[in-house]
Design brief:
mainly beta
């Protein structure tokens, strides 16, 4: 643990102890500061706290639904500091915070036009449209510092303040410093992830509120020292024990370095001519620079990890640059209960590979340089949105986004306090990475058709005095999905894209429940069952059953000034043939059916290669004192009782049993 972080944590704990002592020392006649309030003006009655520190999203302003939310002060779930855990583990990832991940369940792509397709680290970046814009009556600061066992340190700090009543400015800084959990060369400091994220944001409103401006800028730097996973034991004679050596595991690669840099600039502003007519404009500039390097001479053996080498037999140094200029202008307004919005959008994505200029390296016959493209296209979008407000929390809406004659998205949605339903149909263009990739390990150029996606989803909510139930279901049809398959080269774990000729259907009913027992015991749970069918069912592996349950004891002391929670999180995923991972192109790819000559490669069910599955339990203790929330967490507390570990991706183990400590502290002055 870095000394600086240890010092910060020490002082944080000391301040909490002082706060506890102050709470315990209060006398009946002393003025009490309300819960979650840290400052009270001596000159007036203003009390600073969550109610005076609110935030809003751009979509709220753009859709004329101005609803500020107060900052989260709840204790429940504060120990879930991993981005993957924030998705209830419905992500397949490489077992360590900060490493590549993908959704287990199908989602509608954010971009229906041409995207880069390098999205393995997307969950660690907050998109420009998802930034929170604050309105604070006093300076607001939130510090979230986690000291994870085995060198897994995460820091997330947000600061915001108003510069006058109409202008707010803020910063969000996140860093990750994660030691290797597999094949470490030393006990501390052998990093697998180094990451930093900085976002600056501002929100301005004119005195008459007719003009508003929202702007943010993001820099994201992410470095992963990829291992390639555990060197497999193809004989399996020694059972699973050989797989769970963690730091002592034998891994494929030690000098592979993947870097990703993103720079995003975003501006949204609008002017209100009248309630009926407003004009808006938004501009987004995205830059994504993906680079990896690896000295091929350092591979484990002559039959090393990379089986296909095309340009340079001594060193790999591949770079992909992706740039997007995006402008949208539109009209919107409200007429009675009807909201409308029409827009026109010009988007220009470009991609550049460093091997486009091949003069500096040896060109092998596999490269036909006349077919190598350095492309930029101009995409023209037009569309509209409509919404009928049928009550304070009830509306019916829908919209269309149309790209030339190639791609489109249709959407309809109904929401009220009990019933929610949504229907989406999208026709999505292949990504740049799907259509073409130029690198030392692979070269390809494909002509794929757009993929059509239909998704229906809905839920019903029931709230009883001590029970909350939300049954839900979704059905998704994906026609001609593009997926990655394993290279035909023997023993290779590299991948190439293909397009299925048929469709896959996924039906996923489930239920979410919250139950309170005896006022102090609480159960939160969610279960999803998935049935997959269709001609292309094999290209979209999804577990048949996933389940999550949180059982905890909660007690409140000193009139709500101290809250204590003790409980456990339990995750279960039924055995399924999850995707393997190609580190060269950051793509998850399909395992081939059946055993091949490499034994486990291509036949590696998750979470255990023997086809078994078991629940994974985490223990946590959460404590809240005023605005400070402290947690202690032990992941995989049942390690050794059923199995010595589990896998999140073939040859990548999940987090072993360690001790995590963290503090989330909010300041309102």
């Amino acid at each position: 643990m870095p000394k600086q972080l240890l010092l910060v944590f020490f002082w944080g704990c000391l301040m909490v102890l002082i706060s506890v002592a102050d709470v315990l020392a209060q006398r009946p006649g002393r003025v009490q500061i309300p819960t979650d309030t840290t400052t009270q003006s001596t000159e007036d009655t203003v009390k600073y706290g969550p109610e005076t520190s609110r935030y809003i999203y751009q979509s709220d302003v753009q859709n004329n639904r101005i609803r500020y939310q107060t900052v989260d002060t709840l204790l429940t779930g504060v120990h879930k500091y991993s981005r993957v855990e924030n998705f209830l583990n419905y992500q397949q990832y490489l077992g360590v915070i900060g490493m590549a991940s993908r959704p287990i369940y199908p989602t509608i792509p954010k971009v229906i036009g041409t995207d880069i397709g390098l999205d393995a680290y997307d969950i660690y970046v907050t998109e420009p449209e998802e930034i929170r814009y604050y309105d604070t009556k006093s300076p607001f600061t939130q510090m979230f510092i986690t000291f994870g066992g085995r060198g897994r340190d995460v820091v997330d700090v947000t600061f915001s303040r108003n510069i006058g009543p109409n202008l707010n400015f803020g910063l969000n800084v996140r860093t990750m410093s994660i030691d290797k959990q597999l094949g470490a060369t030393r006990r501390q400091g052998d990093k697998v992830v180094r990451s930093s994220y900085i976002n600056a944001f501002a929100h301005y409103r004119s005195e008459d509120k007719r003009y508003q401006l929202m702007a943010n800028a993001t820099r994201f730097g992410h470095t992963v020292f990829e291992s390639g996973g555990i060197v497999e034991d193809t004989t399996f004679d020694s059972g699973l024990d050989e797989f769970f050596r963690y730091r002592n595991a034998q891994i494929w690669l030690r000098e592979f370095e993947a870097n990703e840099y993103r720079f995003n600039y975003h501006l949204y502003h609008q002017f209100e001519l009248s309630t009926l007519l407003q004009i808006y404009h938004q501009f987004t500039r995205r830059h994504q620079n993906n680079y990896f390097s690896f000295p091929l001479s350092s591979q484990l053996s002559d039959n090393g990890y990379f089986k296909r080498i095309l340009l340079d037999s001594t060193n790999t140094a591949d770079r992909v640059k992706y740039d997007v200029w995006d402008n949208e202008i539109g009209l919107k307004g409200t007429l009675g209960n009807l909201f409308y919005q029409v827009h026109y959008r010009i988007r220009r994505p470009t991609v550049n590979y460093n091997h486009y200029d091949l003069d500096s390296v040896r060109v092998l016959p596999v490269y036909d340089t006349s077919q190598v493209a350095h492309t930029g296209v101009t995409e023209l979008y037009a569309g509209f949105d409509l919404r009928f407000d049928l009550g304070e929390n009830t509306f019916l809406g829908g919209g269309v986004d149309y790209l030339n004659t190639q791609s489109y998205q249709l959407e309809a949605e109904f929401i009220n306090p009990i019933l929610k339903a949504k229907a989406v149909r999208a026709r999505v263009l292949p990504t740049y990475t799907n259509r073409q990739y130029i690198g030392n390990q692979k070269y390809r150029k494909n002509e794929f058709e757009p993929t059509a996606i239909d998704q229906l989803s809905g839920s019903i909510e029931y709230q009883f005095p001590t029970i909350y139930l939300r049954p839900f279901a979704s059905i998704t049809n994906i026609n001609q999905p593009i997926y990655y398959r394993r290279d035909i080269v023997v023993d290779s774990r590299q991948a190439f894209p293909e397009q299925a000729s048929g469709a896959v259907q996924l039906l996923s009913p489930g239920v979410e429940a919250r139950i309170d027992f005896l006022k102090k015991l609480h159960l939160q749970s969610q279960v999803i069952y998935t049935l997959t069918s269709g001609r292309a069912a094999d290209v979209y592996p999804v577990p048949e059953l996933t389940a999550f349950a949180r059982l905890y004891y909660e007690n409140i002391f000193l009139d709500g000034k101290i809250v204590l929670q003790i409980g456990t999180d339990i995750h279960y995923t039924s055995s399924y043939r999850g995707y393997d991972y190609d580190i060269a192109t950051q793509q998850f790819f399909l395992q081939p059916n059946g055993l091949d000559n490499t034994g486990l490669i291509g036949n590696f069910p998750l979470p255990l290669p023997n086809g078994q599955s078991f629940p994974i339990a985490d223990l946590f203790v959460n404590l809240k004192v005023r605005t400070a929330r402290i947690f202690l967490r032990i992941p995989q507390i049942n390690q050794g009782f059923l199995e010595d570990g589990y896998f999140t991706t073939p040859f990548y183990t999940g987090q072993p049993l360690v001790l995590d400590l963290g503090i989330n502290w909010q300041f309102f002055d």
